[in-house]
Amino acid sequence: MRKSSQVLMGAVSLVAVTAGFQAGANAKSPSFTPGPIQTPGPTTQPTITPTTTPTTTPTGKPTKKPTGKPTKTPTPTPPPPSTTVSHESSPVYYRFGTVQLTVTKQGSQITNIVMNQAGASAGRAAAFPYLIQLAEQAQSASFDTSMMGGATYSTNAFLQALGDALSQF
Amino acid sequence: MTPLESQLEQGPAVYPLVEPNPKTALSPSRWIKLNRSQDFVEGIGWLSLVWVVFTFLVDGGASQIVDLHTALGSIDRISALVATDLLLIQLLLVARVPWLDKLYGHDRATLTHKKLGKPVLYLIIAHFVCAVWAYAIADTKTLVDEFLIMLNTISDLVLASIAFVLMIIVVVTSIKIARKKLSYEAWYLVHLLGYGSVMFAIPHQISTGIDIAGKPLAQTFWISAYLFVALNILWFRLLSPIVFSASHNLQIAKVVRESSDSVSLYVKGNNLKNFNTQSGQFFILRVITPTQWWRAHPFSISAAPTDNQIRFTIGNRGDDTGLLQHAKPNTRVILEGPYGVFTEDRRTKDHVILIAAGIGAPPIRALAESIAAKPGEVTIIYRVRDKSDAPLIEELNQIAKKRGFYIHILEGSRRHPKSWLPKSGNDHFADDRVLQSLAPKVAKADVYICGPAAFTHAVSNSLLKAGTPANQIHAEEFAW
Prior knowledge:
The complex is a heterodimer.
Chain A: H1 3-26, E1 48-50, E2 83-88, E3 92-94, E4 97-106, E5 109-118, H2 127-138, H3 152-167
Antiparallel strand pairs in A: 1-2, 2-4, 3-4, 4-5
Chain B: H1 3-7, E1 9-10, H2 29-58, H3 68-93, H4 98-139, H5 143-153, H6 156-172, H7 176-181, H8 184-191, H9 193-208, H10 216-247, E2 251-259, E3 262-268, E4 282-287, E5 297-300, E6 309-315, H11 320-324, E7 333-339, E8 351-357, H12 361-370, E9 378-384, H13 393-403, E10 406-411, H14 431-438, E11 445-451, H15 453-465, E12 473-477
Parallel strand pairs in B: 1-2, 8-9, 8-11, 9-10, 11-12
Antiparallel strand pairs in B: 2-3, 3-6, 4-5, 4-7
């Protein structure tokens, strides 16, 4: 290769590497941010708790982090039946660990998903909070997972566990 | 006369020569064009690597590193990506694709393929070790235990591990020491495992590759890269030679003895002009007999090609080439090619010096026949051990006489181990001075050298000392 071409290629490479690194550092890449492999949480049995005041204020987006209590319902009217039911999936064993989760529904609304076991080696566990968020938005076990690239197996295991838990309602 | 000898005809006293090429403009623009095309192809190869690294970085490949575990994960990924990219480039380099051959010639492409062998293996080893290590840390297991767990739980990893072992075998059998101990055929059969290695590695890349699985853009990139290389190999290495050889009905016409250890093999066929063969090029020849069909050998054409005949002149190197001397007329042959850039296409000057040694004579003989030149513009130097037993010597003399070229036959054993010249009256002159006396225009000429590697290097050194620029020296090495 001629000198001028080498210089050009070197410059292109340098820009690509720098830009790529910056983009990688800034992006909230779901599957590659290393996260601790979560330890299995306490298993909960299906419980029925009567709620006193169903909240009616709609919020645009569900919060990222799963919280212990239902805080919101996306649809404004009519007020859903006032029962909160939780079901736990059977554990799903897959390549990178074990996934087990508990889904809490208020009426027909999925209000909460808690990971009881979130086994996924090499940082793949970081995918689960995003998957929970997506599942709560979609209110089902079928949603677009194309953005979960790099965590295909963890995603599939999550969907299987979610489907299992939902089937118990 | 032995029974074999009686089968062989004597060569024609006067070989019918073709009309030389019409003179074309020898301008520097040719080189600029060539350089541009080369830079373009090399640039694409380089950019494929840059792209792979870029997508890896965008995915947080480097920024995710916080500890040993994540560092290993990153090395595991990037080494696999770069190795796969280089491996595909390596495969393409030996796919004998005409558009690469035109730019680099078969020998340079093969040399680059060779040079990439070890680095690719090191990358694959890094990928393997780092992957197992990273998972072992995550699962707090020993390396061996973790590897066994991975083998059991990840189905495609069994295939990938076979691919890994095959790749080690392929590279180890190709290092210099091993090549010396292995026959060409044994090495060749083992080297074919390389294709198996590449194919066995694909499933785990598609199904579990963190940078490929579930990423449409990356999947598109890699699948098209694999397809592109596979189609080039399938067509140019496998199908096109068979199709062309069959459709041109290529068969051996006759075998004619040239010297005590060389014969000319005449291959006949129809419409051979369609091959667009140039003097100085070579074909890879495969004689279709029950025992020889799988062993192919490269041979230069030894006469400018005509529409119904291609001639090769073959030395007996003691291996399979000995068997070729017994080839029977009307045996079918498969030709791959033509290949090589040892042609007039690379010429830049009016004056040309053609230098051959021993069985390096065939392409020089073909070039002398067809090269565009006025009388006096071409000097032929033919280095032989024994004038009375040198292949094609009569024909070279005949061409020189007909076309008005200077010809020097240098006969005898070397005057000292580092010289390419025989003993003569002027032994106190250095090689380059003798060369200048044989060809006074040496510094302003294009020089074509064909001979054994040591000879070619010695002559090249003399040429550089005599002032010939490196880009005017064209050499064809058959030591690959």
